[in-house]
Amino acid sequence: MTDPTRIRNFSIIAHIDHGKSTLADRLLEYTGAVAERDMREQLLDTMDIERERGITIKANAVRLEYRAANGETYTLNLIDTPGHVDFSYEVSRSLDACEGALLLVDAAQGVEAQTLANAYLAIDNGLEIIPVVNKIDLPSAEPERVSAELLGILGGDPNDVIYVSAKSGTGIEQLLEAIVDRLPPPGGVAESPLRAMVFDSYYDTYRGVVCSIRVVDGEINSGEALRFMATDLSDAADEIGVLLPGATPVTRLGRGEVGYLITGVKEIDLIRVGDTVTDAATSADAPLPGYQEPKPMVFSGLFPADGDDFERLREALDKLRLNDSSLVYQPETSRALGFGFRCGFLGLLHMEIVRERLEREYDLDLVATAPSVEYRAHLTDGSTVQVRSPQDLPDAQVLADISEPFVKVMVITPSEYVGTVMELIQQRRGEMGEMTYLTPERVELHYQVPLAEIVFDFFDQLKSRTRGYASMDYEPGDYRRSDLVRVNILLNGVPVDAFSSIVHKERAYRYGRAMVERLRRLIPRQLFDVPVQAAVGSRIIARETIKAQRKDVTAKCYGGDITRKRKLLERQKEGKRRMKMVGQVEVPQEAFISALRIDE
Asked: What was the pLDDT predicted at 582?
């Protein structure tokens, strides 16, 4: 068990792509946590999808041993965190398990929107922050300018800023010394009953639920009886250990230490992230403050392409929820797609990652409906209904009005692009708030924007209009009444719920026109004409027709009177009329997937 005065628990927080994972690699390398032959880039990014996309999705803890200049050996518990706004919940959980944070900024790009958001998150948690300027060896690096921007946020002395190059290893020793000298040791009371926080967990097929824990008070011993306070589950600690970065069992974890706990529990819903673990015999009086429940921002239906995979999808979501507690879901039925789940995500990237993980890790073939947000429908009798899917919207006869969620958007952009950014946000029905010049070259813009307007392609548009220099962050705002309608898509007069969407009245025609044109291209021709229509209520706003597949019934006629041909054509015409009355339009799975893709 380590002396708590020689423990330092810290996270690395930064905007996406500012070098967190590379800095974590250098810290592992410098402290000898990983042998040179085992070293690889993005070592703590264990998922294939993280390595392919070059982003961190899951927080990951590792224990480092560092011999400082004063001759003492310190235990450094590093929790690597994601940088994208969609995974800010992972960041908040990591910060709760730490006393300090390294605020990392790219020396070329400077302070970005997520840099500010993460800095404020760390300040709210009362963490000691060390400002770090990374990538100082780049030709375009401006470390002095970026340092001034950082100090403008945090205050303090210019000598507090540490300059590093995570790629080459420059400044790593100075950074480690700053971690030892400037970050506080963990608090807590060693003599108190055990209280340990579960800050992450995942499911192992052979060992059950594996919890990542931070011991706050007391100590935890291998084999002792434990109790999870939120679910009142009692079980023995089959194994406790630390990550070096491989799992290494130990007999005891003391105050301030970070490690893992395996109890052998296989029931996923019995262990929750944010729960407090205590001793079953001498329980703590009160649990540790839990995490604030994440609020889903974007909703989408996930349906198995093969209806027989519904139960497999349920099991996969249960296991993924253990590893990603910001995911919420409930069963949903669609006339077109069958049985599936309406899932809530923190953002569009979060939705993409969850879907890709389900398909890769659990071998599922999924169809996702177009993403929507949570509206509030106000009825004529004074009640309010939560609307997470277009099918949930009540009929017009009982509907008084609809409210939609707004978000507070913060955009940081070079001053030369202010005009084009303002134009984009105003096109998305944004309302301007403050505008602040961080420096003569960089501007911070604050807007109130409908969430539905930014979940689709807003971020891509922002990047393309500013040549990649702008960054954005957002947080939930309030609900406001808006002029919204449901656009229904009809195939041969029958509504197809999977293609319906709630949009602003001004955009209804554009959405309907785009969807019917797309379906006309994707749905194969039938033996009769198929009308594809977009409707708002009973009013048709757009229509395309899938022409009938022609069969030459007169091919067998050779010579003779014209009445023979006419008789065959009349018989075909009568047969098509009957077919159209009883015929169902065949929509292949590929057409559903292609029509529902939001990036086409």
From this structure: 47
Domains of the chain: residue spans and CATH: 4-182 (3.40.50.300), 195-279 (2.40.30.10), 298-371 (3.30.70.870), 376-482 (3.30.70.240), 486-596 (3.30.70.2570)
Q: How far apart are CA 238 and CA 208, in angstroms?
A: 11
Amino acid 600: pLDDT: 39
Count of CB atoms situated within 10 Å of the CB of 140: 9
Reduce the secondary structure of 438-492 to three states and give it as a string: EECCEEEEEEEEEHHHHCCCHHHHHHHHCCCCCEEEEEEEEEEEECEEEEEEEEC
Say how many CA atoms lie within 13 Å of 435 toward its Cβ.
Answer: 12
Which residues, other chains included, contact 283 with Cβ-Cβ below 8 Å and sequence gap of 6+? 193, 227, 229
Residues 202, 352: Cα–Cα separation, whole Å? 20
SS3 assignment, position 255 = coil
Report the distance separating Cα 360 and Cα 365, nearest Å: 9
For helices 88-96 and 113-124, the axis angle rounded to 10 degrees is 30
Which amino acid, residue 38?
Answer: D
The answer to whether the beta carbons of residues 107 and 73 sit under 8 Å apart is no
What does the pLDDT read at residue 313? 92
User: Residues 161, 77: contact at Cβ < 8 Å?
Assistant: no
Report the C-alpha gap between 77 and 56 in whole angstroms: 18
What is the pLDDT at residue 51? 47
Please name every residue paired with 209 in a beta bridge, in sequence order, or none if there are none. Answer: 203
The burial of 80, by beta-carbon neighbours within 10 Å (0-12 exposed, 13-18 middle, 19 or more buried), is given as buried
Taking each helix axis as running N to C, give the angle between helix 348-361 and helix 310-323, from 0 to 180 degrees, rounded to the nearest 10: 120
Residue 60 near residue 79, CB atoms below 8 Å: yes
- The CA distance from 22 to 106, in Å, is 12
Phi-psi region of 47 (alpha: psi -120 to 50; beta: other; left: phi over 0): beta
Q: Please report the pLDDT score of residue 188 as a whole number.
A: 80
Strands 100-106 and 7-14, by their bridges, are parallel
Q: Are 342 and 299 in contact (CB under 8 A)?
A: yes
Nearest alpha-carbon partner for 173 in 332, 487, 165: 165
Task: Read off φ and ψ for residue 95, nearest 5 degrees.
Answer: -65, -30
Q: Which stretches in the chain have pLDDT values below 70?
A: 1, 34-59, 82-90, 268-269, 290-294, 336, 550-555, 558-560, 575-600
Closest CA to 79 of 14, 24, 116: 24
| First CA to last CA distance, the chain | 56
Tokens of 256: 């301030």
Note whether 409 and 472 are within 8 A (CB): yes
